[in-house]
TrEMBL record, chains A, B:
GO terms for cellular component: periplasmic space. It is found in: Periplasm. Residues 106-330 form the Alginate lyase domain. This is Alginate lyase. It comes from Lutibacter flavus. Residues 405-652 form the Heparinase II/III-like C-terminal domain. Its main location: periplasm. It comes from the Bacteria. GO terms for molecular function: lyase activity. It holds the Pfam family Hepar_II_III_C. Keywords: Lyase, Periplasm, Signal. InterPro entries: Alginate_lyase_dom, Chondroitin_lyas, Hepar_II_III_C.
Length: 756, 756
């Protein structure tokens, strides 16, 4: 069937071509407005430079060759612009999404290769769109809060215009004035109006959706040299005020603060460190319109100095985003994030190339570009290709980093601690807009890009139509966003802020300290006082490289202070096969859920135990590596093994495990844990190396308002002391403390030492 | 602690060395028996040849360099021969296992590098073993049916002697006659006697354990030139008859037929095609002693023509074994097999090199050797290294293959159908000795080395001490061996042969036909009449490449004929995430087990449904690829989603899913299914390609004793007909048949055609 459709389309295309062929384009007039094109992403000078270098810039040449092969194949199949019908993943959706990319690439090919067949193809497809669009009603699917025309949501329409603006810029001079008028009057202008003036609930916000809308309107405005559209893009729709309490499909406020436009969208979601408030998955998505529109503004309106805006936050944000990826380049799935998204995605090719070209020519970016194995076919891609060709690439070294959150960097943040192959991602940020999860002070842990303790990510199969049209599944709210789905503390089986966005979005955690000066002991500590009114959580996490341990180990001190007795649940979402515990557990005959709401309804209880020892230990095997959790427990603690998947009537959730510590009827308490990565197992050699924990004992030797101190005894007999400062954690502050009649003295927020 | 032990050991070793240094070895006498060494694996001529080529044979040089670095590091740590105490994975076990390898390698280094420090090291360690062994009691651990002395089981003792014989051969001439006498009298001879004469229940059998025993005794016999030991190795212990009904730990008969010795061990388990009756995982394990002893026999006793024995079955078996691996070189986990074991294991380096050198110098073997990236440091490794160096390597193309089972090739077999990236492994073999599973006519399906439908493999974590000492777990019997754990038919919730080894081992399935002449349509068909007395199962499976499908699809026709009404369960052990079904299912609030025994106690029921349609469809996503099962159902069929993991009190089982068809109160019936692999999904591009099935309808158009015919309608409207011949399936037989008033005529066991 696919073949026959293609044949029909080809036939239609050929017919179309033979009717309209070369009517008006051979007699060119170069009017003054024409001489400015291309100007948006490719520039006239850039095109000249590229043509000179072609054939001698390997990564650029290779990209060009692939794009040419791809677009030649598309051209040979003919043009198809079906009447819009489907949700994401459906035929018409996929086709129009494909067309926008094809148009953009064909435009670029026309410029670089100076071959009119590409311009002709772009023109013909644009004319088909013009013909359809001028009478096109709203998209028939009604699920979106802001319906598009080509797609079911304005968001996708905006995507389309961001790409197609670039195509239009590339063929601008190829088209006659009459043709341009036709396209602008019947397609581009009404298209830009629909996603902005007609859809303020989509456009007039600070939100990644709006960023796409702003960029779309702005980019077509730049090409059309339409100052009104450019202003609408930069500052929002004049005179429009939205209901500040209205919400979108995801539960986010539509426009709480009344801010709008591209500049506000830079201002609000990015912290001064370049952290994007929704997290890396959405930053990656939002990145493209931010950067491509910025590039256009830089080229057409250099006086705006867009790359210097807010102290250069756009370029900083690329560095932040690259640092928010694991060893394989995959983004940490903070908040709503689909696992597997990585810096190999095309938006990051844009980000890396633009960052290199318009930034400081960081040689580390060239090594990522080499891994990406392709570049933008524009001035920035040329710069990268030349950099690589000239041997300037150097490794992009990811180090421990603390990224503040909030427009002014005052709303908590995300810290990543790295040592050798171990990476800890600790989240003490603000809510993260409508894509935020209720997981204050949560963390995930990685070894060489593999998850040791996972963050679940989102409950969604993006663009897989069979799974709820590829959109958010209801389990995203009932499970993935809930606190119990994360490696943090749940109190009384309720989520942080009661799972209420209105409350959560008013608060953020507060950094106690971050310390990465000592390469061997990297620590972050933060406090959360609002998630459960009356309860304070102070969590201090460290990655410590110590000669008495094979690999860097993770230390976790969660100090809970409450004004009443509570039930605390403290889960560890480990992956892999249980190897051993030092406690006896019982497995039930039938599996029941752990609770009935707030995410608990999705967990089966696979085993239960009473903690006997002062230290409860669990070891497991995952992807050929051994891990051991050592956790401080008391004899009233319950230990649970749970598994995700209850109340999941459409198999939307992954059946993955957790180990959970439950402490009932407790006011103030400490959850102290160490996670060791150790040894390995190969099914080929069948040998197990260093499969046992190196920890003999873990205990608290002091806990006060001011300090918490723990002692770790290695199986080889060495003892370590770790003291964290709870209240006066400046780097300059000196401390004196007696523990077990021994005096300790140090400067700074923590102290780590051997004590025997 | 590790470091301090090493230091102590080093100190002991240094003391030892300084006392005994160079007493008798500088003044060499070359007696006539000495001139024959090395002769076992390395030969005197081979050593000369290697020394000439050294530095100019990259893969050999690289291997040598690594081995040298490894052994130099070991030597610097000193010698450690602890009193045996532990099970597999424990300290003393691991140490002695390591020592045997180190000895063998040090011996080889002495020969190739002509550096006495290696000979001295071997001598000193052997002397420590001699000192310990002469008074060593049985190993203190009592779990084995045949306890060793260095290890808890004779099997490991035999492993040790197979390696150490080679080391002894290498340093034979370095040692004084007095030293040799001491070693032979106090260590080697009693060691060989313990694993043979003292342990007939281990030695005097046809079993992979015995093969190790035979090889151990034979190899030390060859080095010592002791004809009595050589004969004991080849023919078994003279005059020993075992109880033919006794069983070993795994439930296998100790010696049902009274056969024993190395030759009987070649005779019995290998079919003429080289299939090893326990399956590839154990063949890989058994391979090393077979081949290394054969190499020794070839070198020392060429008159035996061991590589021509049973029409060259030893070399054929290597080809069979390589064909029993997936696209990544991992062996199919038939019977008890641990997943992940692959041709990268050192035993396969031996196999590939020996097969190349002593066989027909197949260039395909060189490409596998290149992947293995190392060679044996002996004559065969030299041949491989030279072959690679001289550019002779060619791809090892795995094609569809049918491997007969049984000593005479008359006990069923295993067929592998391959087309493009799809591999189907179909098992219609005999029981497979004590490691056999009760899974007649079962199959597993792979795409590019990834499982589509899995075989569970074994329930064991080999050498991981925390999991039952690394030994078989009780779930191996209660789950992994049971029929319901496999992709085949279970009748009335009982396993084939009632799960009784005595019965199962008397029977085997029978090939109906195997056809691989047509590259596009590869078919295997076999019948099982004994698994359930009164019930016959005839299963025909095909992999078909057809232009109307994106990838080759799998066709499965299971024809069941019974003399009474039964309950049939027919599972599909798919891996991954459920995407879509065309039936409505219900998910229970609590998870209960599917049954109470025969493996059913390990399955939770996650969802249930009644089949509505004639075709029940399930699609899923795994590792970025889409799959759809289309199965013929009737309205009485129950559909179940199950998950492994019930009654698993120590988390020994993996929590993996199955979809299951249940047909009650039925005598004769057909289970007809198609599995399509199609399209793909990338989390980086977030685009889903070809995510839907290409099948509109699947139906039976004829079913008789002689023929079964099905019709497949593609969504593009094309229709296919597949007819399988049930009873008269020779290649030459011509057939005529009317279906829906249309006449079909063909020659051979099946017919496949487009019918519109």
């Amino acid at each position: 069937m696919i073949n026959s459709i293609k044949l029909i389309v080809l036939f239609v295309a050929i017919t179309f071509v033979s009717c309209k062929q070369d009517i008006a384009n051979d007699s060119k007039k170069i009017a003054s407005e024409e001489s400015n094109h291309p100007s948006l992403i490719l520039t006239a000078q850039g095109v000249k430079d590229i043509r000179v270098q072609l054939g001698d810039i390997p990564i650029f040449d290779k990209t060009l060759e692939k794009v040419k092969a791809e677009i030649d194949a598309e051209i040979s199949l003919g043009i198809e612009t079906p009447i819009p019908l489907d949700y994401s993943g459906g035929f018409t959706h996929v086709r129009h999404k494909r067309n926008m990319v094809v148009l953009q690439k064909a435009g670029v090919l026309y410029q670089i290769l100076d071959d009119k067949k590409y311009a002709k193809y772009v023109k013909e497809m644009l004319m088909q769109y013009e013909e359809m669009y001028k009478t096109l009603p709203l998209h028939p699917k009604t699920r979106s809060y802001a319906r598009g025309k080509l797609f079911w949501q304005c968001l996708n329409d905006s995507n389309w215009l961001v790409y197609v603006s670039q195509a239009y810029d590339c063929v601008y001079n190829y088209l006659s004035e009459e043709e341009r008028n036709k396209l602008e009057t019947n397609l581009f202008r009404p298209f830009a109006d629909h996603i902005s003036i007609d859809s303020p609930q989509f456009y007039q916000r600070v939100h990644n959706h709006s960023t796409w809308g702003n960029a779309a309107v702005g980019m077509i405005g730049l090409v059309m040299n339409d100052q009104e559209l450019i202003d609408r893009a930069l500052y929002g729709i004049k005179g429009v005020d939205l209901d500040k309490k209205a919400k979108d499909d995801d539960g986010g406020f539509l426009n709480k603060d009344g801010k709008a436009g591209f500049l506000a969208n830079i201002e609000e979601p990015f912290s001064p460190d370049g952290y994007y408030n929704e997290g890396p998955y959405y930053q990656r998505y939002a990145m493209y319109p931010f950067l491509i529109f910025a590039e256009g503004l830089h080229n057409v309106k250099p006086e705006l100095k867009i790359f210097e805006y807010k102290e250069g936050v756009l370029l900083k944000s690329i560095n932040a985003l690259l640092n928010l990826s694991d060893a394989d380049g995959e983004f940490f799935p903070l908040n709503d994030g689909q696992k597997g998204m990585s810096y190999y995605t095309s938006a990051l090719v844009t980000a890396v190339d633009i960052s290199y070209h318009f930034g400081t020519q960081d040689p580390g970016l060239l090594s990522i570009a080499s891994l990406q194995d392709r570049v933008l076919l524009d001035d920035s891609g040329l710069a990268v290709a030349l950099g690589i060709k000239n041997g300037k690439a150097a490794p992009f070294n990811k180090k421990s980093i603390n990224l503040s959150d909030g427009p002014n960097g005052k709303q908590g943040g995300v810290a990543i601690l790295r040592n050798e192959d171990i990476e800890l991602v600790f989240k003490y940020a603000a809510q993260g807009s409508s894509h935020g999860h209720y997981d204050k002070l949560s963390y995930s842990l990685y070894e060489k890009g593999e998850e040791i303790l996972q963050d679940y990510g989102l409950a969604r199969f993006v663009n897989i139509e069979q799974k709820g049209g590829g959109n958010y599944l209801k389990e995203n709210k009932t499970w993935a966003k809930q606190t119990i789905a994360h490696n943090t503390l749940t109190q009384n089986e309720t989520s942080h802020f009661n799972g209420k966005y209105e409350i959560g979005s008013q608060h953020h955690s507060v950094l106690n300290y971050f310390s990465s000066e000592n390469e061997n002991v990297q620590v972050v500590s933060a406090k959360e006082s609002n998630a459960y009114p009356g309860t304070e959580m102070l969590r201090t996490m460290a990655i410590i490289k110590d000669e008495d341990f094979e690999k860097p180990y993770m230390l976790d001190l969660m100090k809970v202070t409450s004004n009443k007795a509570n039930k605390y649940d403290f889960p560890y979402y480990f992956l892999g096969q249980v190897l051993q515990t030092n406690f006896e557990y019982k497995t039930p005959k039938t599996l029941n859920t752990l609770g009935s709401k707030n995410g608990y309804q999705h967990l089966y209880v696979e085993a239960t135990a009473k903690a006997f020892n002062e230290n409860s230990k669990l070891s497991w095997l995952n992807e050929g590596k051994f891990y051991t959790l050592t956790s401080l427990t008391n004899s009233n603690d319950e230990l649970l093994f749970t598994r995700i998947g209850a109340n999941d009537p459409e198999f939307n959730l992954r059946r993955e495990a957790a180990f959970m510590l439950r402490r009932k009827n407790t006011k103030n308490t400490l959850f102290i844990s160490i996670i060791e990565a150790h040894g390995g197992y190969s099914p080929v050699t069948e040998s197990a190396v260093n499969s046992n924990s190196s920890i003999k004992e873990l205990k608290v030797v002091l806990d006060s308002d001011a300090y918490t101190a723990i002692e770790i005894t290695n199986i080889n007999g060495t003892m370590k002391l770790f003291i964290t400062v709870n209240t006066n954690a400046s780097k300059q502050q000196s401390h004196k403390l007696n523990i077990n009649k021994k005096a300790y003295q140090w400067v700074g927020p923590y102290y780590y030492t051997n004590i025997n």
